[in-house]
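OP here, attaching both records as promised.
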Amino acid sequence: MKKLKIKQLVNFSIALLCIALFALLLVSAIGVGVSTLRVLISSFLGLAVTLIINVILHELGHLIVGVFSGLKFYSIQILWLFIGNENGKFKVKLKGTKGEFGSTELLPQNKENVLKNYVYSALGGLIATFILILIQVAICLTVKSIEVYSGLGITFPLTVYIFLVNFFPMFENNDGYLVYKYMSDGNDKVVCENYYTATAELISGIEPRDLDSSLLVNYSQSSSYSAGIRYLRYLAYINHDEESALKELREISDISENALLSDEIYEELFFSAILLNDVRYIKTREQSMTAIFEKSERPQTFRIHASYRFFTGEVDWAKSILQGGIEFCKNYPIKGIAKAEEKYMQAMLDNLK
């Protein structure tokens, strides 16, 4: 909690400084003898335009550098515009965000230099944003048009804010955090590298229980990537050793809010409550889980949803969910998880029959 409060304080401080800088530049622009209304309209419209340009350039930076580094394009989202693969099909559509202005999903083509390739992609986004700062500062210093100056020049503090919150590694799981882990020495870098290598193996079709065991033995309580390692250990156990699986899950439940896989861990905590018949926990999480069930973005969700419907006595619904989940697994990009979850759900379906 203390760590979270420090992050919030730093984030607030950066935002406050950038707002103060923008306000100072805005007042200076108003004072040059042109229409105040023209400056205000240009600058506030400019903020919206600057945000859109930031998201486009930042995500394209990730995408272009990532692809040249050896990663494979999967999807990109810019504000509400989604382009890419979803449930095995290429789609272009409007899609709700998850609290982020943009995101780019790239997949490794093999397990060689996976972390390095993702680091290059992260740097691509940071460099693109930094170049935009330089362009906007140049506009401030050279452009005479008050509309361009106030619309695209003095809005550069917004770009500075976006760059800093992506750059500082204390904001866990951002671009700077990944770069910092790669450049650091010691156990944290090893854990990070192992996590990305294990993920590459899963994408290639290796099931969690068959992952290279050396990738799953190293973790530390201080690293967010350790939660990822423990989650993979959990998946390796879940279909044949529930006791060991739940033990791994309990180890990460206290940091799931800051984990790389917070949504997945949240789901599995609900699943563990079903296995343990923890009615009180289930009742407190039912509403939030229903929203997750409606999206069904991964095979695990189908397994957990079916288990919940069986728990509530809705057996026919549970069977239908399992059949849908088995079909969903055929096109899921993380092939190793898809294989394991398909087996698990098929066994559940056979038992229900």
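Record two, same layout:
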Amino acid sequence: MAAILTFIGSFAGKIFADKVVGWIALKALLVFLFITVVPLVLNNFLYDIIKIMMDFASGQAAGATALNGNMSFTGFAAWLIECFRLPEAFSLLISALVLRLVLSMIPFVRLVG
């Protein structure tokens, strides 16, 4: 009777040990994949998506008529613009307007004001 119980115990221990070793191996494999492979794949995928979008945008911009938004000021006007820091102010204003536009496009964001 003791031999049968010993056999059943060793059999259960062997199954349990195999399951634990398999679980540890699976966790090690998943950690390896999520630390090394997944970020590389996502980085390459996002890079390709951004490259496609930038190629499309540059292709669309090349077909449009050229609009030059650069302005050059000299003398007193340039001094006043530099004193009042108008380029930085316009940059901040345009950034705020674009941020508000982007936030208004998100369906679950409520803008007050």
